[in-house]
C-alpha cells in the first residue's frame, strides 16, 4: 500500500519567504531573536544534517537488506532437489544476519544521538517530534525486514523437510508395502500446496500436490501407483477402511471451506482498513481545499474594499479636480483679459 | 445444478429390500411419457443404493448422468439424485437436514413400516424445490457466495474512492491557483490605490 506522500517543500519555502518579509516589517522584535537563532542554526545545523545523513544511510541499508531477503526468498522457493544451491543460500543468510545486527547497532546509535539532542536544551517540539518520528519509522522498517528474513528461513526449513521426505520416498520405494502405506498415511503437505487453495471434491486430495519439477512429477506417478496397489491389497481387509477416507474427505471438504471463508473474511477486513486509510488521507485534502478557499475569499474581499476606496476617492476627488480646473480656467481668462 | 429426486428409506440391515418411507421427485423436465418410467427408475436405484450403504456412512454413486448420494443413519437412509454439478457437500448437508426433519416429524414410527408408504410428505416436496439452488442447503456455500459479492462491492468502492482522491487532488490544485490569483489581485488593487492619492 503506497502512501501518497506529497512533496510540499516548495510551498513551505515560499511560506517561509513571505513570513520573513512580514518579519522584516517588524524588525525590532525579531532582530534580537534572529541573531541567536542564526548562531544556533550554524552549530546544530551540522549536527542536524548529521542526524539526517545517518538516518538516510540507515534507511538505505534497510532497503538493501530487504532486497537481499527477497532474493533469498526466491532462491529458497525455487530450489529443487538436483539444483542444490545450499551454499549460496547459506552465504546470503549469513550476510543478511550481519547486516541486520549492524543495522540494529546503527539504529541504537541514532537513538542515543536523538537523546543527546533532547537533553541538550529545550528545543522546538517540532524537531523533537521529527527525530522521534524518523527513529520510529526506521525501527518499524527494520522490524519488517527482520520478520521477512525469519519467514524466509522458515520457508526454507520446510522446503528442506519436504526434500528429505521425497528423498526418503525414492530410497524406500523397494521396501515393503507397509512402508509405502506409512509414507502415504503420513500427510506430506508440501509447502506450496498449503498456500494454494486445494479444490474440493477430491478423494485423493492429500496426495496430489501441484507439480513443479520433473522429479516431483515422477514421484507423483509413483505415488499414484502406490494408491492403486493399496486398495487391492486392502480389499481383503475390512471395507470400512475404504469408506473411512471418503468420510474424511467429506469433513476435510468442510474444513477447507471454513478455512477459505475465514481467509475471505480476513481479506475483507484488510480491504476495510485500506479504505479507511484512504478516506482519512482524502479528508486532509478536503481540509486543505477549504483553507485555500478561505484564503482566496479573504484576498478577494480585501481587493474589493481597496477598489471601492479607490472608486470613492476618485469620485470624491473629482469635485476638487473640477474646482482646481475651474480656478485654472479662471486664471487663463484673467490672463487673456489682461493681454487682450 | 438440479435435484431430480429425494427419497427417505428404511434400510433394513438384513437382505430385505429397503422400505420407502417418503418420496419426492421432480420429473417436469422429462417428456410426459417418460415420467412414470423415470419414477420407477428412481425407486429402484434408490432401493439398491440404500441397501448397499452401510449404517452411519455416506456414499456417492455415479449412475448414468446422475450422482446418487446416500446417507444412512441408524437404519434411516436418505437418498438424493443430483446431477454432476451439484456440490457434494451441500448434497450431504441437505440429506442431513432431511433426516433430522423426518425424525422430528415422524419419530420412531418408521421402524415398524413394512411396505412402501404412499402418502406424500410435503416437507420433502418443499425441500426439493427449495434446494434446487445448492447455496440454500449449504450455509457455508451461501456465506462464501455472499462474501465474494461483498468483496466485489468493496473493490468497486475502493476504485471510486481512488477516483474521488484524484478529483480532490485536482480541486486542491485549482483552489491553490485561485488563492494565488486572488493574492495578486489584492496586491494590484492596493498598488493602484496607493499611487493616485495626490490628485
Automatic annotation (TrEMBL), chain A:
Residues 248-310 form the T-SNARE coiled-coil homology domain. The chain crosses the membrane at residues 319-339. Keywords: Membrane, Protein transport, Transmembrane, Transmembrane helix, Transport. Residues 25-56, 180-224 are annotated as: Disordered. The keyword Zinc-finger does not apply. GO terms for biological process: endoplasmic reticulum to Golgi vesicle-mediated transport; intracellular protein transport; vesicle docking; vesicle fusion. Pfam families: SNARE. The keyword Protein transport applies. Residues 34-49 have a biased composition (Low complexity). GO terms for cellular component: endomembrane system; Golgi membrane; SNARE complex. GO terms for molecular function: SNAP receptor activity; SNARE binding. Belongs to the syntaxin family. PANTHER family: SYNTAXIN, SYNTAXIN-31. This is t-SNARE coiled-coil homology domain-containing protein. It comes from Brassica campestris (Field mustard).
From TrEMBL, chain B:
InterPro entries: Longin-like_dom_sf, Longin_dom, R-SNARE_YKT6, Synaptobrevin-like, V_SNARE_CC. It is found in: Cell membrane. PROSITE patterns: LONGIN, SYNAPTOBREVIN, V_SNARE. The keyword Lipoprotein applies. CDD domains: Longin, R-SNARE_YKT6. Coiled coil: none annotated. It comes from the Eukaryota. GO terms for cellular component: plasma membrane; SNARE complex. Its main location: membrane. One of its GO terms (biological process) is vesicle fusion. Residues 7-123 form the Longin domain. Keywords: Cell membrane, Coiled coil, Lipoprotein, Membrane, Methylation, Palmitate, Prenylation. It is a lipid-anchor. Residues 139-199 form the V-SNARE coiled-coil homology domain. Interacts with SYP41. Core constituent of the SNARE complex required for membrane fusion at the trans-Golgi network. Belongs to the synaptobrevin family. This is VAMP-like protein YKT61. It comes from Brassica campestris.
Amino acid at each position: 500500500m503506497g502512501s501518497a506522500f506529497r512533496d510540499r517543500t516548495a510551498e513551505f519555502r515560499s511560506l517561509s519567504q513571505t513570513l520573513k518579509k512580514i518579519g522584516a516589517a517588524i524588525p525590532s522584535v525579531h532582530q534580537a531573536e534572529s541573531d541567536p537563532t542564526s548562531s544556533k542554526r550554524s552549530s546544530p545545523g551540522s549536527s542536524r544534517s548529521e542526524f539526517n545523513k545517518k538516518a538516510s544511510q540507515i534507511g538505505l541499508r534497510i532497503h538493501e537488506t530487504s532486497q537481499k531477503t527477497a532474493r533469498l526468498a526466491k532462491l529458497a522457493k525455487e530450489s529443487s532437489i538436483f539444483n542444490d544451491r545450499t551454499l549460496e543460500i547459506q552465504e546470503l543468510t549469513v550476510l543478511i544476519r550481519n547486516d541486520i545486527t549492524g543495522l540494529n547497532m546503527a539504529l541504537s546509535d541514532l537513538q542515543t544521538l536523538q537523546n543527546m539532542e533532547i537533553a541538550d536544551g529545550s528545543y522546538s517540539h517540532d524537531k523533537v517530534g521529527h527525530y522521534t518520528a524518523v527513529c520510529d519509522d526506521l525501527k518499524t522498517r527494520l522490524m519488517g525486514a527482520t520478520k521477512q528474513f525469519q519467514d524466509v528461513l522458515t520457508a526454507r526449513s520446510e522446503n528442506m523437510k519436504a526434500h528429505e521426505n521425497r528423498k526418503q520416498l525414492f530410497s524406500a520405494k523397494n521396501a515393503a508395502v507397509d512402508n509405502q502405506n506409512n509414507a502415504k498415511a503420513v500427510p506430506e503437505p508440501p509447502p506450496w500446496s498449503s498456500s494454494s487453495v486445494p479444490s474440493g471434491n477430491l478423494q485423493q486430495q492429500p496426495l496430489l500436490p501441484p507439480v513443479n519439477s520433473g522429479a516431483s512429477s515422477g514421484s507423483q506417478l509413483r505415488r499414484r501407483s502406490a494408491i492403486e496397489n493399496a486398495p487391492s491389497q486392502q480389499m481383503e481387509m475390512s471395507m470400512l477402511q475404504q469408506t473411512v477416507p471418503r468420510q474424511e474427505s467429506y469433513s476435510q471438504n468442510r474444513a477447507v471451506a471454513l478455512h477459505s471463508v475465514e481467509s475471505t473474511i480476513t481479506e475483507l477486513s484488510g480491504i476495510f482498513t485500506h479504505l479507511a486509510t484512504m478516506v482519512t488521507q482524502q479528508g486532509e485534502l478536503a481540509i486543505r481545499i477549504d483553507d485555500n478557499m478561505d484564503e482566496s475569499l479573504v484576498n478577494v474581499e480585501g481587493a474589493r474594499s481597496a477598489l471601492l476606496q479607490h472608486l470613492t476617492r476618485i469620485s470624491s476627488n473629482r469635485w476638487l479636480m473640477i474646482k482646481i480646473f475651474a480656478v485654472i480656467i479662471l486664471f487663463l481668462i484673467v490672463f487673456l483679459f489682461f493681454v487682450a | 445444478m438440479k435435484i431430480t429426486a429425494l427419497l427417505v428409506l428404511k434400510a433394513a440391515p438384513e437382505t430385505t429390500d429397503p422400505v420407502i418411507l417418503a418420496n419426492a421427485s421432480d420429473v417436469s423436465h422429462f417428456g410426459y411419457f417418460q415420467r412414470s418410467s423415470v419414477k420407477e427408475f428412481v425407486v429402484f436405484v434408490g432401493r439398491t443404493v440404500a441397501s448397499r450403504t452401510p449404517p452411519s456412512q455416506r456414499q456417492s454413486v455415479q449412475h448414468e448422468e446422475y450422482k446418487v448420494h446416500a446417507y444412512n443413519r441408524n437404519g434411516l437412509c436418505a437418498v438424493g439424485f443430483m446431477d454432476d454439478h451439484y456440490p457434494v457437500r451441500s448434497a450431504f448437508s441437505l440429506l442431513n437436514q432431511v433426516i433430522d426433519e423426518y425424525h422430528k416429524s415422524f419419530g420412531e414410527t418408521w421402524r415398524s413400516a413394512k411396505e412402501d408408504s404412499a402418502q406424500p410428505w410435503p416437507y420433502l416436496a418443499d425441500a426439493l424445490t427449495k434446494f434446487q439452488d445448492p447455496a440454500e442447503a449449504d450455509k457455508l456455500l451461501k456465506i462464501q457466495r455472499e462474501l465474494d459479492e461483498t468483496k466485489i462491492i468493496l473493490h468497486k468502492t475502493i476504485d471510486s474512492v481512488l477516483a474521488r482522491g484524484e478529483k480532490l487532488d485536482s480541486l486542491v490544485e485549482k483552489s491553490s491557483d485561485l488563492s494565488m490569483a486572488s493574492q495578486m489581485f489584492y496586491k494590484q488593487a492596493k498598488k493602484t490605490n496607493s499611487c493616485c492619492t495626490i490628485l
